[in-house]
Specification:
Blueprint: E1 5-6, E2 16-17, H1 22-34, H2 52-104, H3 112-141, H4 146-178, H5 182-215
Antiparallel strand pairs: 1-2
Length: 225
């Protein structure tokens, strides 16, 4: 209302000095009286409510994430056999890497948007492995040897995986730039998940696959054709 020097606590009686004129003092007093309550306020009852609903939502989100990951791991292991086990190991490393990066960034916390970002990351990582494995199956159907089929499968699927992840990364950057609060948290997890899924789903998975092949060259990795 006014730029003045306040000498004491603003109680029922107080003084404000260095006013420009008596008229300015009267106008300020009128404004202060206009904003005051005409009747006293008495607190009859006070109640504190804890944030139990948020805790329940977080617990339900973690349960949903656990159930979803469990079914995903079982299905991938059943459908792709040895390659599926390799994909599950890469997926586990993906989640560990993502949680490690989250612990280093102050804006990345495990809230409901963070859990949603983790679920999306799991889906993207599985999609990456599915694309690669289907390419490997196509190469095997064409009569290529196992080592050649794996090399061509990873090589041919990489461009498709890269394009899909770049477009998703652009979306995450836009969400982070124009969003706020939970939207920014989701965008951070999304972008970090893209980086970790690309690393574990392509490079780590390929290294593990080559390692298994070299250990047992006579086995066709149990790929279901």
């Amino acid at each position: 209302m006014n730029v003045a020097t306040i000498q004491q606590h603003l109680g029922s009686q107080f003084s404000i000095t260095n006013m420009s004129s008596p008229q300015a003092a009267q106008e300020l007093a009128l404004l202060l009286r206009a904003g005051s309550l005409t009747a006293p306020v008495t607190i009859v009852k006070q109640r504190s409510i804890e944030a139990t609903l948020g805790v329940d939502n977080i617990d339900n989100g973690i349960k949903a994430l656990t159930i979803g990951i469990s079914f995903t791991l079982l299905f991938v292991a059943f459908w792709y056999r040895t390659l599926g086990i390799i994909a599950n190991v890469a997926l586990a490393l993906n989640l560990v890497s993502l949680l490690g990066l989250m612990s280093l960034l102050p804006g990345a916390v495990l809230t409901l948007p963070g859990i949603a970002g983790l679920v999306l990351t799991v889906g993207m990582a599985v999609d990456t492995n599915v694309l690669i494995f289907e390419r490997i199956k196509e190469e095997l159907k064409r009569g290529h040897k196992v080592l050649s089929a794996i090399e061509n499968g990873y090589k041919n699927a990489f461009s498709t995986i890269l394009d899909a992840n770049i477009t998703t990364m652009i979306t995450g950057i836009i969400l982070y730039s124009i969003g706020y609060g939970p939207v920014k948290g989701f965008a951070i997890i999304l972008c970090l998940g893209i980086l970790t899924s690309m690393f574990t789903g392509v490079f780590v998975s390929k290294a593990l696959t080559n390692l298994v092949i070299r250990e047992n060259k006579t086995q066709l990795l149990g790929v279901k054709l």
